[in-house]
């Protein structure tokens, strides 16, 4: 699926550098932008669930934890 990406408010110096880089690689500025993004994201990987869960456990380790059955009982008792 092809899409469009618009980047606003770039510094003139950055635009000039991108155009010079594109010229060095024999590409259009647009093709160079695509290649830069492709390379930047090529090694990105989504963290797996176990890693995210471990990180969350570390972040919440010092917090007081209330077991879910206690919360459920409190909610039922309020009705």
Question: How many strands?
Answer: 0
Structural class: mainly alpha
User: Largest sheet, if any?
Assistant: none
| H/E element order | HHHH
Shape: elongated
Strand fraction equals under 5%
Helices, by number, come to: 4
Termini gap: 51 Å
- Number of domain modules: 1
Helical content stands at 55-70%
**Nearest-integer average pLDDT:** 93
- Rg of Cα set: 25 Å
Low-confidence spans: none
Structural account:
The chain has 79 residues and is mostly helical. The protein has one domain (12-78). It is built from 4 helices and no strands. The longest helix is centred in the middle third of the chain and has 14 residues, at 29-42. InterPro entries: Arc_rbn_hlx_hlx (IPR013321), FitA-like_RHH (IPR053853), Ribbon_hlx_hlx (IPR010985).
Quick overview:
This protein is mostly helical and 79 residues long. The protein contains 4 helices and no strands.
List keywords for this structure.
79 residues, mainly alpha
């Amino acid at each position: 699926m092809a899409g469009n990406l618009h980047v606003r408010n770039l510094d003139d110096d950055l635009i000039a550098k991108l155009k010079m880089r594109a010229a060095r690689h024999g590409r259009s500025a647009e093709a160079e932008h695509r290649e830069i993004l492709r390379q930047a994201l090529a090694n990105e990987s989504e963290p797996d669930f176990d890693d995210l869960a471990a990180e969350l456990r570390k972040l919440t380790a010092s917090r007081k934890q209330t077991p879910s059955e206690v919360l459920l009982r409190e909610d039922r008792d309020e009705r």
